[in-house]
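Translate structure to sequence.
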């Protein structure tokens, strides 16, 4: 009877592990600034989020980006207002904060996450268009 209970327990554990929800992003897609630019081209309704501070955002940002500061305590609350089913494109100054934000967004339940490698600094170095 004890062996049967152990076998049943293991079967239940394997069942729940195998049936894990695969609809949540399994990876975070890191794109070069050019790839990021190309992915956004023509997408007026893209969920584009600058995760820097409002001061950094005011100094210059990508067109149509909204600012949700990853360092603020309300980051998750603000991110949850976005559509989890639609792709989200994020960036910061150098790529460190957006990498942190991407992990948080993955845990929140976003399906497709795109993070710009090197951040806004590399965007500007490549001469891509932004809004000042």
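Result:
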């Amino acid at each position: 009877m004890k062996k049967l209970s152990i076998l049943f327990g293991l079967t239940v554990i394997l069942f729940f592990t195998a049936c894990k929800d695969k609809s949540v992003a399994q990876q975070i897609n890191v794109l070069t600034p050019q790839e990021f630019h190309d992915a956004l081209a023509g997408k007026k309704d893209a969920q584009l989020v600058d995760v820097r501070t409002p001061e950094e955002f005011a100094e210059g940002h990508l067109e149509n980006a909204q600012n949700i500061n990853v360092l603020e305590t309300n980051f998750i609350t603000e991110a949850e207002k976005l559509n989890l089913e639609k792709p989200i494109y994020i960036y910061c100054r150098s790529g460190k904060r957006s990498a942190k934000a991407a992990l948080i967004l993955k845990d929140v339940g976003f399906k497709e996450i795109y993070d710009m490698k090197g951040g806004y600094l590399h965007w500007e170095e490549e001469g891509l268009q932004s809004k000042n």
